[in-house]
Amino acid sequence: MPAIGFGTSSLSGNTAEIVAAALQAGYRHIDTAWKYGSERAVGQALRASQVPRGEVFLTTKVSHEYLRADDFARSVDESLKNLAVDYVDLLLVHWPNEAIPLAETMGALAMSKRRGLARHIGVANFNTSLLDHASQHCPEPLAVLQAEYHPYLDQTKLLAACRRHELIFTAFCPLARGRMFNDPVLGAIARRRGRTIAQIALRWLLQQNVAAIPRSSNPQRIAENIDIFDFALTDHEMKQISALKKSDGRIANPAGRVSGWD
Ligand SMILES: NC(=O)c1ccc[n+]([C@@H]2O[C@H](COP(=O)([O-])OP(=O)(O)OC[C@H]3O[C@@H](n4cnc5c(N)ncnc54)[C@H](OP(=O)(O)O)[C@@H]3O)[C@@H](O)[C@H]2O)c1
Known about the structure:
The protein has 10 helices and 8 strands. By secondary structure, it is an alpha/beta fold.
């Protein structure tokens, strides 16, 4: 899975054209979801590009209201139709739903993999205990956990859980939806290195072996966000950035949806 993917929720403008710009800029990992309504445009951009299907790592997600086995299978079929592909590279449960037995959802997720509709499977927005349960109940191995992560949010516990379960951690909202662009610490590091704050934040994730799926509707920023592979932050800079975590740093707060969130 390419470490930098392209996020496609709430793009402003023509989504197919923006995804085409991302493919043109070198992205080979695209993150979509049934819920975003961007699947059709992603499929359109893929078909219009010269990039072979096998070279793009495509992720989609099943929304929390479709986690019963029948609904799940229908949602996956609809996503594949929207995208006009035979399989996705990664299929995620978008949010947990405590009203539906986790074992049923994990069975449906594993079935999608067994039917060849998803190469890999995983979950998003699961906390550590839900992740433990999901791994226990899933008949196929989980490969990825997708969750919010950026310099303003401490994810130490969830990162440790991912290592325990041998999952890749993918960071969503890796740019904190723009909230850290006036940060003086990030600003000083960025100036010293001749980089942008976005690049520093993404590099900080990468050096923790965390994948990231930044979103931008601007061609220049789309290119900027994937141009992070030719420099490295020092241990001191990594620590300075980790120290920016805030107790109220979470943006997509799932606390209202699941009990026992930690
Ligand atoms: N699994 C989930 O529940 C979940 C939840 C949220 C998000 N996601 C996924 O993660 C992706 C990314 O998260 P996100 O879209 O919430 O937020 P994000 O990537 O943290 O931030 C996007 C914002 O940052 C701006 N931006 C991007 N690059 C920039 C740069 N280099 N310099 C300055 N500003 C820049 C964008 O504006 P411009 O467009 O103007 O550049 C946009 O306003 C989503 O698109 C989606 O695919 C998943």
